[in-house]
Amino acid sequence: MTFKRVMKFLGLLFGFLAGVTAVIVAWFTRRMVAPARQPLWATPSEMGLAFENVQFPAKDGVRLSGWFIPAAGSERGGASIILVHGWAWNRLGDAAGDLLADLSGMTPVELLRLAHALHYEGYHVLMFDLRNHGESAAQPPVTFGLTEANDLLGAIAYMETRPEVNAKRLGVIGFSMGANALLYALPQTIAVCAAIAVQPTTISSFAEAYATDLMGLPGRVILPLVEAAYTAISGVRLTALQPAFAAAGAGATPVLFIQCKEDPWGSMEDANRLAAATPLGEGPLYVDGSHHYQGYQYLVENPRIAVAYFEQYF
Fold first, then answer.
1. CB of 295 within 8 A of CB of 270?
2. Residue 4 above 70 pLDDT?
3. According to the model, what pLDDT value does residue 102 have?
4. What integer pLDDT is reported at residue 2 of this predicted model?
5. What is the C-alpha separation between 80 and 66, in angstroms, rounded?
6. Do residue 136 and residue 12 come from a single domain?
7. Which end of the chain is more exposed for a tag (fewer CB within 10 A), N or C?
8. How high is the pLDDT of residue 308?
9. Are residues 51 and 124 in the same domain?
């Protein structure tokens, strides 16, 4: 009788654990393929900035939405910066306001603060939502920079149509997946004079570190299931997403890499490899911090780093 009770208990426990695992796998797979959209929580007008709502097509035709913020003056001769946000963010950055953010230690990333600083330094600024994010059209799956490069290429083409923009003085700042999109886009364009890649990553390495940091040993068990589900739905293997291969074709565009020193979700080795693969890769500029998001915050809190960098090449 006792044996039967033990087996019944073990069966119930196994069923419970299997059910919990299935829910976790489904949730993370959904977040990877098409993350829940963060609504826009502010506009440039709330920081006293004039702006224009804009829409334009990605290189492959996907509708993208954004804001064009004209420069405060004309002393920079039409120089412009495109900001490219990260995975599960929107053009404003990351509100970091959900349970996952609380569990993982994420902090809000306010890209509007960076746009504000660049505007008053005399740059036109384009902020836009990548596909499957914000107010842009849905075109799943998310590929962590590979297809999102088409969005950046569409943004570049759009900026080249604006009369106030000097197409020969165009820069890009990409964060996370936006930095990956930058590396994938550079071999396909010569329009970018200089760029800053804030914590780009080899996604398979990031996924392993992220899962381990968030869930410990169970994360290592669940990750292969999530990867298999993502591949089954998207047709893309995470190990096939290698921005370093694309970065090798970046040509004559100088790229400054920024990486948090003690990032539990990334690594200095990966950052070094990406920078070394880029013909004119500079850095990485390693910043103090023990969390992934401190690497993002660094440039937002120190916009003069970006301004000084672009001044070298514009």
1. no
2. no
3. 83
4. 76
5. 15
6. no
7. N
8. 97
9. yes
What's the half-sphere exposure (Cβ side, CA atoms, 13 Å) at 216? 1
**Around Cβ 309, how many Cβ atoms within 10 Å?**
21
Higher pLDDT, 64 or 220: 64
| pTM: predicted TM-score of the whole model, two decimal places | 0.94
Residue 13 in any domain: the answer is: yes
Mark whether 82 and 158 lie in a shared domain.
yes
Within a domain: residue 38? no
Domain count, the chain: 2
Residue 151 is encoded by which pair of tokens? 């969005």
Residues 276-314 pLDDT 10s: 999 999 999 999 999 999 999 999 999 999 999 999 998
Q: What pLDDT score does 103 carry?
A: 81
- Residue 186 and residue 152 in one domain: yes
Interatomic CA distance for residues 312 and 314, integer angstroms: 6
For residue 251, tell me if it sits in a domain: yes
User: Are 245 and 235 members of one domain?
Assistant: no
Domain coverage including residue 1 = 1-33+205-239
Q: Is 94 part of a structural domain of the chain?
A: yes
pLDDT at 300: 97
Q: Which residue has the higher pLDDT, 1 or 84?
A: 84
Note whether 107 and 173 are same-domain residues: yes
User: Residue 218 above 90 pLDDT?
Assistant: no
